[in-house]
Every structure is written in C-alpha cells, then in structure tokens.
Amino acid sequence: MESMRNLMWTRKKKTVETEEFPVKDPSKYLWEKDKDSDQYIDLFSIALEDEVKNEVEEEFEELTQNPDRKENAKSKNYRDIGHTIVDPFVALNTYNKSLRYAEIGSRHVSLAYANRASCFYELTEYKKAFVSINMAKEDVHFPTFLLAKLAELEENIKARFREKHEKEIEEVGDPTEVRRELAYAANKKHPCLSDVVKIKESKQYGRYIVSKYKLPADQIILIEEAYLHAFDTESLRSCGTCLTEDVNFIACEGCTETMFCNKECQARNELHKWECNTFLTSVIHQIRIAIYSILLAIDAFTTNGETDVNELIQGVEKLYKEKEKKQYPESTLDSKSKYQFFFKLAISGLDPERAELVIRIIYMIFLMVLKIPKNQSLFVDEKSRRFLQHLITHHICVINTNSFGEENSTTLGLVESLFNHSCAPSINRELISNEQYYYTGKKVQEGVQLFITYLNLEAYKDKSVRQKKLRENWCFDCNCIVCAPKEPSLADKCNSALMTILYNQFEREFENVSHVDTVVDTFEDSAVDRSENEAIEMLEVTADDNSRMKFSLEE
Fold it and tell me: Which residue has the higher pLDDT, 350 or 139?
C-alpha cells in the first residue's frame, strides 16, 4: 500500500503567493458529468494549467522512447562484465541480463546458460546448475570447443553434490518446493479462500473477513495470486509471471526486459502481450501497475480479440452504480468477475495538499495508455477519452488504498484487500513468489473479525509513529487493543489471576512445562463468554485446589 503513496506524495507542494488557477483534487469530481452534456467532466481542464501539461508531455516523450532491442554486442558486453564480478550472486544478475539481450538463435543464449550454471555452482545451488548446463548442452548453437569445459563443470557439480548429500545422483531436476495448500476446503465462489471464513459488510468496516468456526493457530486460510503486480526491471531477478526469483529463466523472445520460469509461465502472462517490445517494460513500477489495471479492464470487456469501447463504458458505469448500492460481486472465478471485484474495492480520497502531483501522474498515465499500440484505435473521441480520465483516477484510488508495496515493487490481491488492520493481528502473511499465504497467527474464536497488519511492526514499535504512518498512508487512526486498550472488566481480571495460578501450579508439579500451555489454552477457550460470577467461582475453586567457471568465445 505504501508504494503508490510514496510515488504520489513525496514531493512537497509548491508554494506561491497568488494562485490564479488553484489546483483541485481530481477525485472530488470522480464520475461526475457536465451539466450540459452526457460527457464526463474534463479533469485535466479543471486541474492542469497549460504550462504543467507541457511539462508532463515533455517528460512523457522522454519516457516513451523506443525500447532497447536484442543485440549480441550488448549481450557479450554484459557477459564480459559478469566475468569480472567476484560475487556469484551479483554476477548471476549480469548473466541474466546478457541472456535477455542475446538475439534468439545465437550462441550468446547458450553462453548465458553456461555462465549461469557456473554461478549456481558457486552458490551451491547444484540442482539449478545442472538444469542450466542441460539448457546449454541442448542448444545447438553452443560452441563445440567449449563442450569439454562444460563437461568439466558438470563433473565438478556432481562431485560436490555427492559430497553434500552422500549419495549417488541418478537424476536431478529443477528444484520445486512442495506447494502448501489451504488447511480447509476452498470456498466455491472464491477458490483462493478457505470456507471456514466468510466475507461480511458493515457501515463501520466496509467489507471484511470473519471466522465461521474456532480455528487453531498456523492454519492457512487464504492463498492468493496477486491480481496486479509490477516491479522495476533494473535489477531483474524474477519471473515476469509468478515472480519466482533466481531460477533457470528463459528470456522473452520479443523484448529485453522480461524473463520467465518456462514456457508455461510465459503463456499465462496476458499482460506482457500488451507491453512486449514497448516503452512500458522500462516504466517505473508505480506507474506501470496503474496502466496494467486499465489493460485488465479493457481485457475484461474484450471478446474474441475485439474490444467495444461503448460496452466498456456502459459496463463500468453499471459497476459504479452497483458499488454505490453496495452490490458486490459474488465470485472471483474469471477475468470479468475479478475486475468487478477490483473496481468495487474500497477507496480513500487523494491528499488535496498534493493534488498537483497526483493530476500530473494521472495525465502521464493517460498519455501512456493512449500510446500503447493496441489502444490507439480505442479511445479516439472526446467522450471515450474523458471516460478514460475518470477510469484512471478511480483505479489509482483503488490501488492507493489496497496495494502493498516495497521499494522496487507493488502488488495488489483482491480477497486480501478485505482484511482490515490491527497492530495486534490475528492473521500473518508470507509472500512466496507471486502468492500471498495468509494463516492464523494464533487461535481464533468463532465469529470474530480477522485482522492483518499494514505495517512492519518491528520497525514501528512506537504508537505515535505507527499512528502517523497509518494516517499518512491510509487516512485512519488505529483503535486496536494495542493503540486504544480497554479497561479490563472484573471477569478479565479474574481470568488473568486464574491463569497465573494455573501456571504456578503446573510449573511446580510437572517437568514438562509445555503441559501448562495445554491447560491454559483449554481454560482460555472456555473463558471467552464466561460471566463475572462464573469467573469468580472458578477462581475460588482453583485457588482451593492449588496444590565459478567462465565461458567466453575468446578462449
């Protein structure tokens, strides 16, 4: 969630003595139409002066130059740089860059594989090294005079692998981790979500997730692949589809900015078909994720490769009316239902103090969307272009409110966006490749709302710092039990005293202290709805019972 905010609101507002044309927040006019026509309000005429427009357009021309082409000379240059790098982890990135620039059908592709194998060998990633060696050997363009050297590296890897595992190698394939699964049956309408939780809606929380049953700790309840993800390609180390890092990539045949785990990952990536060999692959991730969202909207209303802009406009207008009436999509089973879910996610307004920067970004994205070859025949009249202005603004508000971001990447999941924040979360998350795993961090009672944390709690231990960060990035004050603790009731005090007695008693009587946790857990389960009188009675009863090798053409 922080990345888009950081992009949009890091620049300080310009201060001037007089403002003949005050900057206005475009989100305030979202989906409003002109009184005298059936067209949406022109956001740019309201919020952008001609001088600012010209500045953005000049920057746009610089950012949208023709992309780099595959070129063997550049591939060789990066390979030579890799040979000079001592650290195999750093060198691996350079050899992958050499791979991306290598012309398809040239020997430079296989040389990149061989040098990558050498890096994996140094990193003791022997299985990966074998795969890269086989990729080099299977390439008919691999130089024959280097085959002996490749065989020597292969023998070295086998020896080290035997030494490490103390057994003979019969067959070594690409390493794959055992995929973790949902702990319970999947929801039929949202297959990524376990059926032991459900989605609810209220005026206070909007849509949120609650437990249907009591759940023990460490149970996976959601495994969701990001609906949107974008990352900078300057230090590219991951698959363009699944985000798996540092494996035996193949390069995209059409551009120099993308790699894939295999042909299957390449075939799954619909978005790359729009951006391949265009300026988009080199645009910073905060801008690119917003453009991706527009492309997914277009794709949701495309049939047999044909997009009807009027159908797109009518479809989005219907979604907006349904969102106003709190009519939410029932499933996330296909591209259209997923886009509907995305469009209807909660949004927060844009910071009016930095509205000038926001509208500049919206205008930049607008220009870039129009420049994409597949879009040039779509938004051709004033009506459709004004609609596009509002669609981009709406998407930015959604992404800003619901995405998670790091320095070099931004991701957004659909169902994960329904989790609200707490500084004492009941749900933990872990990112593996392009999938977010959400699991119970502790025991969960039936019918309670499930919370995650939007912050790195280790980095923001001070309450005032956390509140400031949450207010700046998500426009709310946290009232969780950590930030606004409630005065404990008499029953709470009795329960606390009783647990202290239980611990003291069992620590004296049992060497296996872990048994204490079982007893206290049982007590906590039974104490959830206990009245004050029952808690006092139980307390009294308990009290009474208190007893690298390098490959070059120049060799």
Answer: 139
| Radius of gyration, CA atoms only, the chain | 28
Give the lowest-confidence range in 107-111, 224-228, 248-252, 548-552.
Answer: 548-552
**H helices present in 301-421, as ranges:** 309-324, 335-343, 355-371, 382-402
Asked if the model's pLDDT at residue 378 lies above 50, the reply is: yes
Contact yes or no for 47/359 (Cβ under 8 A): yes
pLDDT of 249 reads 96
Residue 193 pLDDT > 50, yes or no? yes
Amino acid at 207: R
Paired with 202 in beta bridges are 206
- Please give the C-alpha separations between residue 85 and each of 81, 106, 276, 533, 552, in angstroms, as whole numbers: 7, 24, 30, 72, 15
pLDDT of residue 187: 95
Helix axis angle, 126-138 to 147-165, nearest 10° = 160
Q: Which amino acid is at 199?
A: I
**Strands 435-440 and 427-432, how do they pair?**
antiparallel
Give the span between the Cα atoms of 112 and 553, in whole angstroms.
12
At residue 222, the pLDDT reads 96
For residue 100, what are the CA distances in angstroms to 13, 64, 110, 114? 40, 20, 12, 14
* pLDDT the model gives residue 234: 65
Give the closest residue to 220 by CA, choosing from 455, 452, 419, 427: 427
Please tell me the least confidently modeled range out of 116-120, 241-245, 302-306, 352-356: 352-356
pLDDT at residue 415 greater than cutoff 60: yes
Distance, CA of 89 to CA of 68 (rounded, Å): 25
* Of 149, 97, 129, nearest in space to 257 by CA: 97
Long-range contacts, stretch 520-525, CB < 8 angstroms, 24+ apart: 521/443, 523/495, 523/498, 523/499, 524/443, 524/495, 524/499, 525/214, 525/443
DSSP for 142-164, written as a single string = S-GGGHHHHHHHHHHHHHHHHHH
In the numeric block, the tokens 């939410």 are attached to: 328
Question: CB–CB of 45/390 below 8 Å?
Answer: no
The whole-angstrom separation of Cα 83 and Cα 119 is 10
Binned at pLDDT 50, 70 and 90, residue 236 comes out as confident
Q: How far apart are CA 114 and CA 137, in angstroms?
A: 9
435 phi/psi in degrees, rounded to 5: -115, 135
Q: What is the pLDDT of residue 1?
A: 42
Rounded Cα gap, residues 18 and 280, in angstroms: 38
Q: What count of residues does the chain have?
A: 555
Contact assessment for residue 97 and residue 251, using Cβ atoms and an 8 Å cutoff:
no
Residue 58 CB-half CA count within 13 A: 6
First and final C-alpha spacing in the chain:
50
pLDDT at 10 over 60: no
Q: How confident is residue 507, by pLDDT bands cut at 50, 70 and 90?
A: low
Give Cβ neighbours of residue 176 (< 8 Å, ≥ 6 apart): none
